[in-house]
Amino acid sequence: MLPLAISLACLIAAPPVGAKDPAVTFDPRTYHQVHIGEPTQIMVLGTPHLSGTPENWDPSVLEPLLDRLAGFKPDAIAIEALTGPGIDTMWAYRATHPDVAATYGGRAMALAGMSRVTLAMDMPQAEAEVRRTLAAWPKAPTPEQRRRLAALFVAAGDPNSALVQWWRLEPAERKADASISKLLARELDAFAARPNENHLIAARLAVRLGLERVQPTDDQSDDWDPAMDQPIKDFMAEPWLAELLADPKFKALAEASRNLGTSDQTLATYRMLNSAAAGRLDADGQWLNMLNRPSPNQVGRRRVALWETRNLRMVANIREVAARFPGRRVLVIVGSAHKPWFDAYLGMMVDVQVVDTAGVLAR
User: Fold this and answer.
1) CA separation for the pair 197, 203 (Å, rounded)
2) Nearest of 44, 128, 92 to residue 315 by alpha carbon
3) What is the pLDDT of residues 326-362, one digit of tens each?
4) Amino acid 14: pLDDT
5) Most buried in the list 170, 247, 312, 318, measured by CB within 10 Å?
6) What confidence tier does 223 reach under pLDDT thresholds 50, 70, 90?
7) Which contiguous run of DSSP H or E holds residue 331?
């Protein structure tokens, strides 16, 4: 037993293979090349919010973009939408976050309420049933099964994933039944008609790739102090913001949703938004300008801190999604202002490879 004890003692005392000098500050990026298997590839697509497109805008101009995103072959698609638990929490705390709860959770809550006519489930019950259903999901589900899963997604506060199921049905099968009331069927079609990247890029791409859902990863719980409302208005009324918005380079970023008139123009706009230069220009314009000048009650620094808070919470949600797909591919679709921050934070993750979006779009 003595030789074995000595061997064990040596193993305990010896540093692990590849360990760095303990005096050197830890950096999780040193783990990038030591994991077993392929890295998890995450690509962040920065997008203009399509709600800002002109009236009568034609979504078909997105097809070349969808072709290139499909070529990335993501196993999961994360979107800038609140999760069901996030919506439920924000609604419970709507007295604290009244505008956020109504703006980002109100529609999902209303749709979820419609689903109770047929399912009789609250959001937590529906979320649990979604998980059970997907765990036993057949390779060839019936239309009835897809309609029920669509209704469950709605009830769980995830109408974007409900659209994936709705659109995977043949048009004649997108109808009311025991799971979906006539009202909910009509409202799903109305919801789908809204110009939104979560529908027109993420859900459409999920359908094309045969995915069953998209993955909500937004977070709006950063705690803004209402006492800062007037100071931030005063700060934003200072000349620096008007000068920034008048800068032709920054104007191209701010007005990107209006530069999607043709397929070629759309692809050029997305290539521009996802370039390193655009990311730096956006970050410096919006956020450095709040840090490098005086502001009332340090409101500029407060605003940047909360922007970082939101980005970190969103990236944590994306990381949680990626944890389900080790060594595979995750596409993140998010407002372009978030992209440089997401790329930087995700680049810190131990087994993640951040994919060059501009390179994919250039193909």
Assistant:
1) 8
2) 44
3) 999 999 999 999 999 999 999 999 999 999 999 999 9
4) 47
5) 318
6) confident
7) strand 329-335
